[in-house]
């Protein structure tokens, strides 16, 4: 039984005119204690929507189907009542831009204590002591709890946002682009902190990012999303050294390497519009190696080995021949 | 040969706001030394990348070159003319030769303007092109250079009908229409998706390789600088602390700050996971520049003399074998 298990997750957003945007199209993921999984893809590929669904925080204009199970218990059938007991206490999230979402007129400590009080995990002096502990855990002196957000630097505010997510002692942390707006040096500090938290607390991490190099730096496993689907998943080392899906290959080729001499390539074209049904492989119009089956048949996500899966006709076709 | 752009000892300061008690106590107004003695040069056909953390003065340097903020000292020579001494009227004819591209094409384009209007507007401002037909011709040519082809497919579109990469190309076309000699690009791809970044960077690369244009690009991403720039200047607290040919700076860094920056760049190969020098804290406040070497409070190898002597940008005293003679750093220990 996995700590977190996502099966065949679908999310639709209502659009004006009765149309729907099929943002997540059958995502499967599992997370075990201490595991660090990167979720990468272009904007609009469904990364953030997947994370928000796991939190049970989709807006009312969205509907979801599939299985989101924490330790074997499916939260989806219960709706909000199913998610609420697990939100923050089992699964917590650092939202994109969370560092800029602090209330400017409350102290940082007050804001970190708030979720504990709401969940009844601690109050009064116990909550204050826990705030101090949490701040120390993320590398901020406990005394800084009495300070206001504007007195913190960007890096410190991001640390405080992480501390807040950890307030109720979750087992899974979802981090949505936690380093995107930060300087390189601060990015390195935050990535080091996230890795350290996973090691210390046995926290499972889902790192949502557009940057493969950040995943390579932080995670053991990676899932590549394209047009609402996972197109390849496996150990980051294997995906880097032998990518199976042409999109994975293109993403790595678009990521400049400091000491690399290879030309950096862009991916021509744009992802498909998900408000109309995708026929065949969603990546086909941009794929340099597409062939006939890709036009009509949607490739299934099939196992390449014990730990790797990919959704590409070419991979499975050549394997069938071999 | 006169360089296209030659900046000497540029200084730009901003006054800070005094509080009521500061005024009562008649404390003098403090200044923030945002750019504190920067010298750099760019030739036609060349790309210089300026890298550094936020608040190091990268953007202020570009704004000073462009004349958007008053300078406090030093000179900015564009084709041999010192533009810091010109009035805004004298500056106007020169301004078409220097164009700027901003970080966020979602904000830098007017949402009510069609692409045609956005690219045509600089021509109207500078009174270039005698007739509508002539201007339309120039607009098309600029769009082709920015690789928005065929132009007809984009001319009548509004920004919201374009992708991020296309928007940035429109912004580039609106600069190219004036045929600038110097293009200043402030983080031109950091807001764009990874999949289109390389396309926009390669476009800038081809434009300057055409030979009629030089580019200064600000980036926080050393990997990008390594791939696309000829030379790299590393800025820290208002100064260039290391400068040289891109390859040399990346492979033979001299300044401890550059070494630290390079050591923490995430690499796409997980086997190259860095165990780098993560500097504590963030760039200090430019209101309070440390005495001696401005990097010494964060420097992992600082010695006593670093606390008192402010190093100048110079060739290293102990160069690594094969170091380029144009590779300079501001470190007493280099």
Describe the structure.
The complex is a heterodimer of chains A (322) and B (334). Chain A has 322 residues and is α/β, with parallel strands linked by helices. Chain A has 11 helices and 12 strands. In chain A, α3 packs across α4. The two termini of chain A are 34 Å apart. Chain B is an alpha/beta fold and 334 residues long. In chain B, the strands form 2 sheets. In chain B, strands 6-7-8-3-9-10-11 form a 7-stranded mixed beta sheet, sandwiched between helices. In chain B, strands 2-1-4-5 form a 4-stranded antiparallel beta sheet. In chain B, β7, α9 and β8 form a beta-alpha-beta unit. Chains A and B meet through α6, α7, α8 and α9 of A and α9, α10 and α12 of B.
Strand content of chain A: 15-25%
Helix content of chain B: 25-40%
- Assembly type of the shown chains? heterodimer
The CATH superfamily of the largest domain in chain A is identified as P-loop containing nucleotide triphosphate hydrolases
Average residue-wise pLDDT of chain B: 91
Question: How much helicity do the residues of chain A have?
Answer: 25-40%
Secondary-structure map with pairings?
The complex is a heterodimer of chains A (322) and B (334).
Chain A: E1 4-14, E2 20-31, E3 36-40, H1 47-55, E4 62-70, E5 73-74, H2 80-83, E6 91-94, H3 108-119, H4 124-137, H5 154-165, E7 172-176, H6 184-201, E8 204-209, H7 212-218, E9 221-226, E10 229-235, H8 236-241, H9 246-253, H10 293-296, E11 302-303, E12 309-310, H11 313-321
Parallel strand pairs in A: 3-8, 3-9, 6-7, 7-8
Antiparallel strand pairs in A: 1-2, 1-4, 4-5, 9-10, 10-12, 11-12
Helix pairs in contact in A: 3-4, 3-5, 4-5, 5-6
Chain B: E1 5-15, H1 20-24, E2 31-42, E3 47-51, H2 58-66, E4 73-78, E5 81-82, H3 88-95, E6 98-101, H4 105-108, H5 115-125, H6 132-145, H7 152-155, H8 164-176, E7 182-186, H9 194-209, E8 214-218, H10 222-228, E9 231-236, E10 239-245, H11 246-251, H12 256-263, E11 328-329
Parallel strand pairs in B: 3-8, 3-9, 6-7, 7-8
Antiparallel strand pairs in B: 1-2, 1-4, 4-5, 9-10, 10-11
Helix pairs in contact in B: 5-6, 5-8, 6-8, 8-9
């Amino acid at each position: 039984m996995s700590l977190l298990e996502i099966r065949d997750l679908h999310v639709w957003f209502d659009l004006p005119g009765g149309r729907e945007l099929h943002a997540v199209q059958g995502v499967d993921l599992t997370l075990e204690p201490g595991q660090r999984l990167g979720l990468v893809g272009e904007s609009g590929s469904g990364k953030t929507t997947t994370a928000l669904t796991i939190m049970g925080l989709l807006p009312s204009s969205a509907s979801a189907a599939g299985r989101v199970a924490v330790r074997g218990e499916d939260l989806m059938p219960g709706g909000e009542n199913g998610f609420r007991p697990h939100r923050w206490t089992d699964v917590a999230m650092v939202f994109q831009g969370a560092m800029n979402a602090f209330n400017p007129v409350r102290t940082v400590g007050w804001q970190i204590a708030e979720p504990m009080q709401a969940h009844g995990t601690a109050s009064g002096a116990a909550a204050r002591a826990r705030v101090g502990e949490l701040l120390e855990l993320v590398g901020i002196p406990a005394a800084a709890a009495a300070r206001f957000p504007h007195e913190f630097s960007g890096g410190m505010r991001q640390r405080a946002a992480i501390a807040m997510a950890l307030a109720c002692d979750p087992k899974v942390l979802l981090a949505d682009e936690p380093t995107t707006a930060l300087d390189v040096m601060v990015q390195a500090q935050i990535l080091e902190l996230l890795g350290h938290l996973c090691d210390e607390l046995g926290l499972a991490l889902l790192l949502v990012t557009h940057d493969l190099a950040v995943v390579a730096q932080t995670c053991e496993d990676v899932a590549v999303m394209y047009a609402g689907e996972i197109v390849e998943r496996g150990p980051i080392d294997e995906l880097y050294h032998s990518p199976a899906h042409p999109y994975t290959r293109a993403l790595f080729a678009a990521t400049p390497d400091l000491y690399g001499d290879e030309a950096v390539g862009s991916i021509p074209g744009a992802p498909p519009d998900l408000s109309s049904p995708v026929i065949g492989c969603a990546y086909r119009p941009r794929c340099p190696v597409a062939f006939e089956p890709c036009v009509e048949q949607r490739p299934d996500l099939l196992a390449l080995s014990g730990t790797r899966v990919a959704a590409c006709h070419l991979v499975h076709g050549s394997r069938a021949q071999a | 040969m006169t360089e296209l752009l030659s900046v000497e000892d540029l200084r730009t300061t901003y006054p800070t706001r005094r509080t009521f008690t500061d005024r009562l106590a008649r404390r003098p107004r403090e200044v923030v030394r945002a750019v504190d003695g920067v010298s750099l040069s760019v030739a036609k056909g060349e790309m210089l990348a300026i890298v550094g953390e936020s608040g190091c003065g990268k953007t202020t340097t570009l704004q000073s070159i462009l004349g958007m903020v008053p300078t406090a000292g030093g000179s900015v020579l564009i084709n041999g003319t010192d533009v810091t001494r010109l009035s805004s009227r004298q500056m106007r004819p020169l301004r078409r030769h220097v164009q700027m591209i901003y970080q966020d094409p979602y904000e830098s384009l007017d949402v009510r303007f069609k692409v045609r209007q956005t690219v045509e507007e600089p021509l109207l401002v500078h009174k270039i092109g005698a007739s509508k037909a002539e201007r339309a011709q120039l607009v098309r040519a600029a769009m082709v250079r920015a690789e928005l082809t065929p132009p007809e497919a984009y001319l009548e579109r509004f920004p919201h009908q374009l992708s991020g990469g296309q928007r940035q190309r429109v912004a580039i076309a609106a600069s190219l229409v004036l045929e600038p000699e110097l293009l200043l690009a402030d983080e031109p791809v950091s807001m764009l998706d990874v999949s289109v970044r390389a396309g926009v960077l390669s476009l800038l690369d081809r434009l300057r390789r055409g030979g009629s244009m030089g580019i200064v690009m600000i980036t926080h991403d050393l990997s990008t600088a390594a791939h696309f720039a000829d030379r790299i200047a590393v800025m820290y607290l208002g100064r260039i602390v290391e400068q040289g040919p891109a390859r040399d700076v990346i492979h033979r860094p001299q300044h401890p700050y550059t070494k630290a920056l390079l050591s923490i760049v995430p690499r796409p190969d997980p086997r190259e996971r860095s165990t780098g020098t993560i500097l504590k804290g963030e760039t200090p406040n430019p209101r309070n520049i440390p005495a001696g070497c401005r990097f010494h409070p964060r420097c992992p190898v600082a010695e006593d003399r670093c606390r008192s002597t402010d190093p100048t940008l110079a060739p290293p005293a102990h160069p690594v074998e094969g170091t380029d003679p144009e590779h300079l750093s501001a470190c007493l220990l280099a």
